[in-house]
Amino acid sequence: LTILGLESSCDDTAAAIVRLNGTAEILAQTVHGQAQLHAAFGGVVPEIAARAHAEKLDLCVAEVLRASGLTLRDMDAIAVTAGPGLIGGVMSGVMCAKGLAAGADLPLIGVNHLAGHALTPRLTDAVPYPYLMLLVSGGHCQFLRVDGAQEFTRIGGTIDDAPGEAFDKTARLLGLGQPGGPAVEAEARQGDAARHAFPRPLLDRPGCDMSFSGLKTALLRARNAQMAEAGGLTRQDRADLCAGFQAAVRDVLAEKTRRALAAHPDLRLLAVAGGVAANQAIRAALVDVAEGADTRFVAPPLALCTDNAAMIAYAGAELFRLGVRDDMTLAARPRWPLDAASPAMLGSGR
Ligand code: ATP
Ligand code: FE
C-alpha cells in the first residue's frame, strides 16, 4: 500500500510518500517552512500562508516523486490534511489533492491533522492500540486515548493556551529568538528554577485539564518587577525566569500525565508528539512518570513530532485499510474535533 500525503494546515508545506507493508516505511518526504515569510509579522499571516502553500504544493509533490523514483501511477491513494487549521492553507492542500486524484484516477482520503500527530508513534515504532497520546505543540495540548485510527477519546487538555505558545511568548517577552521553545530551554539550563515561585495551575483540581495562560501573566509580572527594581534584566535574571517558567510547565504536564495514566490502567504505553515534546526537561519528567506507572514511553524523532506529511500519508494508509474513501466533495474544515463527543477543540487560541 503506497500513499502520497500532503500537509498545509499551518506554516509548513509538506509532501511525503509512505509505504505500508506490514511495517511502515517513509519512501520520501519534504517540508518547506514559511518561517522567513512570517518573521516580520510576529506570527503566521493566514493570507501569506495560503498563497505560499498554493505555490509550494506542486513543488513538494514533484520533489517526493523524484526522490522516490515513483510516479502517481504507483500510488494507491492521495491523503491530505482536511483540517483543522488555517482554512486558506487547508483549502490549498485539498484542492491540490483533488487535482492529483482526479488526474491519476486515485482515491482521495481526507485526514484530520491531529489524527496524523496522534498516529505518528505507530509510523515510527511498533505501537499497538490502545495507548495514551500527549499532544503538546504550538497550537494544541491534549491527552488522547487512542483505540484505533478513528477512535480517539479526549481525556483532558488545556483550557486556554498551548504550552508551545507560552514558550514562544516567554521568549518574546525576554527578547529571545523564535521559535521560543529551544531558546527558552537553552537559557533555562543556566538558570535557577527556585528563584521565582511560578504557579502550577489546576493541579489543585481533579482531572487532566490544564491551563497555561496564568503562567504567562506570572512571568510578565516577575519580569516587570525585576526591571522596575534593577532597571533591566541581566543574563542571569533571564535564565532564572526561563528556568522557573519551564519547571512550571514541566510539573503541570508531568502531574497531569501521571493522573491520565492512573485513570486508565489499561493504557500501558505513553506516546508524545508536538514540538514541545522536544524539550529535554519535559521529556525527562515524562520518562519518569511512565517508569513510575510501569508504562512504555515512545517519542518519535523531532522531525516527525512537528508538522510533516509522512504522518498524514501514514494516517491515510490506516484509513485506507479501514475502507475510508473521500470524493470530490471533500471539504476543508477549520475546526475538526478528533473526539466527536468533545464539545470544542480548545487550545488553538492563536
Ligand atoms: P500545531 O501543530 O499544533 O498547529 P505548531 O505547528 O506550531 O502547532 P509544532 O510545529 O508541533 O507546533 O511545534 C512548535 C512549537 O513547539 C513552538 O511553539 C515551539 O516553541 C515549541 N518547541 C519547539 N522546541 C521546543 C523546546 N525545546 N522546548 C519547548 N518548546 C519547544
Ligand atoms: Fe501540527
Automatic annotation (TrEMBL):
Residues 25-314 form the Gcp-like domain. Fe cation binds at H113, H117, D307. GO terms for molecular function: iron ion binding; tRNA N(6)-L-threonylcarbamoyladenine synthase activity. GO terms for biological process: tRNA threonylcarbamoyladenosine modification. Binds 1 Fe(2+) ion per subunit. The keyword Metal-binding applies. One of its GO terms (cellular component) is cytoplasm. InterPro entries: ATPase_NBD (IPR043129), Gcp-like_dom (IPR000905), KAE1/TsaD (IPR017861), TsaD (IPR022450). Its cofactor is Fe(2+). Keywords: Acyltransferase, Cytoplasm, Iron, Metal-binding, Transferase, tRNA processing. Substrate binds at L135, V136, S137, G138, G139, D168, G181, E185, N279. It is found in: Cytoplasm. PANTHER family: TRNA N6-ADENOSINE THREONYLCARBAMOYLTRANSFERASE, TRNA N6-ADENOSINE THREONYLCARBAMOYLTRANSFERASE, MITOCHONDRIAL. Required for the formation of a threonylcarbamoyl group on adenosine at position 37 (t(6)A37) in tRNAs that read codons beginning with adenine. Is involved in the transfer of the threonylcarbamoyl moiety of threonylcarbamoyl-AMP (TC-AMP) to the N6 group of A37, together with TsaE and TsaB. TsaD likely plays a direct catalytic role in this reaction. Belongs to the KAE1 / TsaD family. This is tRNA N6-adenosine threonylcarbamoyltransferase. It comes from Pelagivirga sediminicola.
